[in-house]
Amino acid sequence: MQDLPNLILIGPMGAGKSTIGRLLAAELSRQFLDSDHEIQARCGADIPWIFDVEGEAGFRHREVQMIEELTELEGVVIATGGGAVLREENRRRLRERGTVIYLFTTVEQQLKRVAKDRNRPLLQRPDREQVLREMFAVRDPLYRATADIVVRTDRRSPRAVVNEIVRRVQRLVDPLQAKA
Length: 180
Known about the structure:
It catalyses: shikimate + ATP = 3-phosphoshikimate + ADP + H(+). With 180 residues, the protein is of the alpha/beta class. The chain is built from 8 helices and 5 strands, in the order E-H-E-H-H-E-H-E-H-H-E-H-H. The chain starts with 6 loop residues before the first strand and ends with a helix.
């Protein structure tokens, strides 16, 4: 399946982008890259620190540069940060340079998955559910407008999600072979 384009995972925090991305890359014998992890490695600092020092605007600027760099690679699986779709230049690059997969999950599922996570600066408030609902209202339309495929991750194993992604991407690349 080396003829597949870059596969780019988008979606909210807690949707499973990193977990599913690693499994998907292994399944396809591809390199996996996580834009948030790459930013941290490049900066030598974690995301909460970047937010504290540079603010969200500073982080988003770094994110634009990283997405530009990662999407120039070929034959990779990329997981983006949840807010990557907020910038038009990111949405455009993602659409132009790969097949974009929106990992959809509900706010209820997000709350369960990120309940103990202290590495998410936008959630370090007592009203986490309200914050997630507000982000969903803004970001869901952007995820949908950017994605080639939408895959629901709620109450599904990561392996089941990976299998669905592989099937659906194959159909996009070669609709006739997928029916055989």
